[in-house]
Every structure is written in C-alpha cells, then in structure tokens.
Amino acid sequence: MHTSASNDVPGHIELNSSAAAQNTMIGHAGVVNIKPADLDVIPRNFPPLSPLFTNRDSQLDELHEAANRHPMILLQGARQVGKTQLAAKWASSVIDRFPHGTVYCDLNAYGPRNQPDLLRALVFMLTIMKVHRVPNSIEECRHTWLSVTRMHPPLVILDNINDPAVLKMLRPAETATLVMIGELNATRFRTEGAEPIHVTPFSIEHSKSLVSRTAGAEHWLTDPDGDALFEACDGRPRTVSLLAACLAEKPDLTVTQLLDEILRHPASRRADAAAAIAERIRIEALAPDQHELFRLLSTSGVTEFSRELAAHLAGTDSADDIIESLHAASLVTATASERWKVVPPAEADPEVMTTVVDWYRRVARIASLIHTPGRLLVTDRQIINSKSRPTLSKATALTWLETELSNLDIVQQYAYDRGWDEAVVSLEESLWVLYLHRSLPSYRERTTARAIKAAQRLGDPAAQSRAHGMRSRHLVNLRDYDEAMAEARTARRLARIAQNSELEASAFEMIARVHAEQEQWDQAKQAYRHSLAIYLHLGDLRGIAVLKHQLAKALIAGGEYNEAAELLHAALMSSIANERPRDLGNVLLDLGRLQQARHETHAAIDTYLAANRKLADTEQLVRLAQSLENLGDCYRATNNVQGATEFWQHAMDAHRNLRNFTGADLERLQSKMAELS
User: Fold this and answer.
1) Which CATH class is domain 1-12+20-38+550-677?
2) Which InterPro entries match (predicted)?
C-alpha cells in the first residue's frame, strides 16, 4: 500500500502534517478519524435556570417517569406558569442520559405565533447539532434532521409549539426524546403520540415558599392583604418573585399599595399588570448608569445582546457590572446562546438604532476581513483597537457572524426601511463571508434582496453588480439555474457600466459556474476563459490560479486531459509559491481526479494521499471525504480490496462525523461496499 507521496506529484509535496486539524489522525493508512474540533463540544443550549426555581419536585418526577415511557412529551399549561423552567431543570438533571446533547428551539423567535418560519427553525437546530452541510430546501432539511437525530439522538425541546402541523415538520427521529412546551389543549397533540403533563400554576403555599427565599420580603407572608396579592399573581412564579424583590428593595412600599394598584385593572389582566408594575418599580429603583443602559438596550431593536454591544452603548470598556445588576433586578435574562435579553423590550428608538446599526456594520466588516484577510482600512482599525467589540480571530469571526445573524438581519431591515442604503449594502457584503460557509437560505434570500434594492437606490453600479452576483450564487445553490444565469448576466452588465474589471471577471466566473452545474461544458469553458483573460490583464495572481483550476475542471469533464493537466500544474505551482495550502489541497484533489481519469492509478494514489494531508490541515473536511472515496476507488482499480474497503470506510466515517446526512454520499459508498463484498 502506498504510504507517502513520491515525485510523481508535481512539486514533490511534503506530507508532514501540522496540528491544525486537532481531531484528524493521519497514520500509515491515511485518515483514521475525521471530526471537526467543534463536534467535541456537546450541544447543551437549554435556557438558563432561575436561581429561585422551587416547588416542582413532583412534576419533575412526573416528567422523568413520562420520558421513560414515551419519546414525546407535552408540557401544557397557562402562560408564565414556569413550563420552560421546568423543562430546563429536568434537562439539566438528565445530561448523562443524552450524550449527544440537548437542542432547545423557541419558535417565537422564528416569526408569527401561528406561522413560524419552519425552514429557519430547522436550519437553527441542524446548526446546533453541528451539521456540516445544511440543505437549502425545507424537505431536504427535514430529511437531514431525521437522519442526524436518528444517528445522534439528542433531547429536543420545542418551546411555544401550538400546531400539530408544525410538529410534523420539526419532530426528530423516533430515537430522540422530544419535550414540547405549549399552551393549547393537549388533545390536538395526543393523536400524534404525545403524553401530556399539565404544569399547574403555583398554589398560594408554593408562592409563599418562593417569597420566603427573598430576604426582606417576609412581611408579605404576614400582611392581611398578602393572600389577595398572591391571588392577583395568578400562580406565576416570575411575577411573585418580581413583586417580592420590589418589597425587599423598597421598605416604604406596602403590600396594600401594590394590591390597590393591581386591582385597578380588569380581573383578566391583573397578573400581567402585576408583572408590569413590578418591572416599572425595579426600573425606577435603578442607579442612573443602570437606568440609562437599560433604556438603551430595551430600545436597541435587537432580540439578544452581547456584552460588547452593551459596553459600546454604555460608552465604557466593560458593562458587565451593570448587566449583572440588571440581571439581579430581573430586567435582563441570560439566553441559551450565552447572551442577554431585555425583559420586556420597548419600541426601537431611532437615535439608539443609529448607534446599533453603525456598530454592527463595522464589527461585521471586521469579522469578514479577519476571516477572509484583506488590507484593513484606517477606519477599520479604530474598531479593531476598541475594547467594546468582540475579540475576533480567524477561527471565531465566522462564529460571531453566525451567532449575531438574527440581529444583523434586524439591523439591516431597519437600515433598509430608513433608506440607509450604504449600511444595507455593507452589511450584506460582510454577511456573504458567512453565506459562503453556511447554508442559510432564508436569511440569504432576505438580506440579498434588500442589498440589491439598496444598491439600486444608491445608483452605484458596482454595488449592484456585487449584490446580483451574490444572489446568483444563492440561486445556484437552490438549483434555480435560469434565474441564476439572469442574475449573473445582470452582474456582468453592471460591472461593465461601472468599468470594474474585477467584478466583470467575477460575473463571468459565475456564468461559467451556472453552465458547469448543468454540465454545459463548452459554454462553461468559454466563460471561464473570458474570466481568466481579465485576471491575466489585471495581473491578479490568485485570480489567475483559481481560474486555471476551474477551467481545468471543466476540461476534465469534457475529456480534454492534456490542457487540463497543464492548467492544474500551473495552479499547483502558484499555490505552492504563494503559500496557499487551502488552494493547494483543492488543486491536488482535482489533479488526482485527472490522473484517475487517465488511468494513472498509482500516481493518483500518491496525489490523493498528498491531498488528504492538505485538506485535513486546512479543515476542508467535506473535500477530504471526497478524496478518501476516490482513494478507495483507486485501490479497487488495482484489485487491492483491503485498501478500497479501508478508505471507503474512512469516507463513510467522515460523512457521519461531519453530520453530512444529505443521503447521496452515504448511499453511494454503501453501494460500493456491498458490491465489493
């Protein structure tokens, strides 16, 4: 069996691997185990527990017993009685039972109450489960969700689910455990096999137990109006704890005063009024700096905020102490994504939103530049040196963009509605770095559509060309080739109007890709040659290398091996000379394919082994899986059954570990293994 690259590989590629891919072990047989580093982090994104959680032992036992009998449970009850906290408490107590993690999804975050965006919800849950390639369509996402939860069964918690039709789309595989949280009658879900557990409001005795844990509020327990105030809280634990905190912090505030104010409201609204009154009192009691930051955060328009955004709004290096004070006052809550949420938010303030949009615009630009290095502008360096921004590196920049995506969507929409078109376009161009690495179709369609219209309003043909080119890539991923071609040609036309040769080359490259996706190789080659000619004229060395590589792939598909070989060797030398290991791994993979097509099997084996090293070092793990499969094919061609079996198995393990459950890859490999046996 071949164990190292020889001089048959142009440039004599050295196979000494760095430790970049920490979880990729490469031994005498190639890649033994492939797993991205972030898969070592088991997803545990259930909501944070309140320190005042109490009085639910019997229902925790009931939930535990129900989970032993049924894979699907419905926690049903009135609003704000503590259903989510009960689920979170139980989930935290059974971590060992679910080694593949916990996935919590609040459907209220994905659109109107009765019509949540199910595609966005599925994409979110697949991302939590570390799925490497998230599909574009809701049907494919549903299939992938079933596959990944069947092989890696987690505990899934769906909050605010009120429609069995939603359950049918989001339900995990039968091997997973599902806990649903809803308000409606359980009968609608019983037909789906859910076992209902009714979460009851706190009794007055339970509420008293909760108040007894708040130092300074003990007089509520003995006040003549105490029971009436408990009744006004309607058994809602959070409302009880808020009022207790108010009584503890304001010695001059009496139970009777609270009760009188609450009783001014209709009986059906008294529990909501009690919570609102408590929140108003807590806000009034804040220190000036706490009050101001709370005002800024509550009118910032974002769904969740980071410590860095809070510090920026506060005009300080750190706002951690103020955030902790707001948290202690129950005015902000920690979220499952380790950020914070204002309770309750207020209407967005235009002045505050101006600051928020500017901050997100600048930090998103920095994140995109750090992940895809380019020359930083002086204005960019100002925020790089600011302490009120996230600490970003190449490894964390993409994660920041992904974590903040919902807020970036919100601020881009806000900017678009107010005609801040430069900000709209800038945010989209920063987000495109994320879209190249994550399949987020619903977000991408919305943000790109806004950017196109904003660029039109600006009258900037270069910005319009970039936006149409971005949308063309999105449509190719959706396999809408006619519309993708129309967008690419529009991008080319606008690039010519802008007299921007680089954008014109990019548009030709996009046109070629649309043709290549449809296996229209002659048209693809022609478009690639146009793009290559422009890059040669510009003297863009990386553009030249990339286009030679792309043109070579089209030539290989058309059987024109000699010219393809020359182009691949040129791209290979350029990648080595310019020290681009990521490009090098990709070129080696296609060089191996060319050698394989020319029946140069032993040379192809050496090239694939070299490709494995580079693809592993640069963590291009999907391509690594492809290289492993091709390597197995080569060993099969040499009648080396052991080698073929070994590398096909490695490829199968790679797809499984990558959570790549799109179906075709595993089915193809399983078929090959079956034929061999």
Assistant:
1) mainly alpha
2) P-loop_NTPase, TPR-like_helical_dom_sf, TPR_rpt
Phi, psi of 179 (to 5 degrees): -115, 120
pTM of the shown model: 0.75
- How many CB atoms are located within 10 Å of the residue 405 CB? 20
Name the residue type at position 377: L
Q: Which distant-in-sequence residues (6+ apart) come within 8 Å of 301 by Cβ?
A: 348, 352, 353, 356, 410, 411, 414
Q: Token digits for 281?
A: 């009192």
- Pair 346, 299: CB distance under 8 Å: yes
Give the per-residue pLDDT at 29. 39
Mean pLDDT for the stretch of residues 563-584: 90
User: Strand 195-198 relative to strand 72-76: parallel, antiparallel, unpaired?
Assistant: parallel
Closest CA to 276 of 220, 310, 303, 236: 236
Q: How far apart, in whole angstroms, are the C-alpha atoms of residue 246 and residue 227?
A: 17
Residue 152 is given by DSSP the state: S
Label residue 96 exposed, middle or buried (CB < 10 Å: 0-12, 13-18, 19+): exposed
Q: Residue range 24-53: average pLDDT?
A: 58
How many CA atoms lie less than 13 Å away from 330 in the CB half-sphere?
Answer: 21
Which superfamily does CATH assign the domain made up of 57-198 to? P-loop containing nucleotide triphosphate hydrolases (3.40.50.300)
Instruction: Show the tokens assigned to 12.
Output: 């004599």
- Reply yes or no: is the peptide bond before residue 201 cis, omega within 30 of 0: no
Question: When comparing pLDDT for 39 and 669, which is higher?
Answer: 669
Q: Do 614 and 583 form a contact (C-beta atoms < 8 A)?
A: no
Question: Would you list the domain boundaries of the chain?
Answer: 1-12+20-38+550-677, 57-198, 204-284
Q: Of 2, 15, 8, whose CA–CA distance to 616 is shortest?
A: 15
Beta bridge partners of 27: 30
Q: What is the pLDDT of residue 41?
A: 65
Burial (Cβ within 10 Å: 0-12, 13-18, ≥19) of residue 266: exposed
Phi-psi region of 419 (alpha: psi -120 to 50; beta: other; left: phi over 0): left
Can you give the three-state secondary structure of 15-26, one letter per residue? Answer: CCCCCCCCCCEE
Long-range contacts of 662-665 (CB under 8 A, 24+ apart): 662/133, 662/135, 662/140, 662/143, 662/144, 663/143, 663/147, 665/625
| Segment 344-353 long-range contacts (CB within 8 Å, at least 24 positions apart) | 344/279, 344/298, 345/298, 345/299, 346/298, 346/299, 347/299, 348/299, 348/300, 348/301, 348/414, 349/299, 349/300, 350/418, 352/296, 352/299, 352/300, 352/301, 352/313, 353/299, 353/300, 353/301, 353/411, 353/414
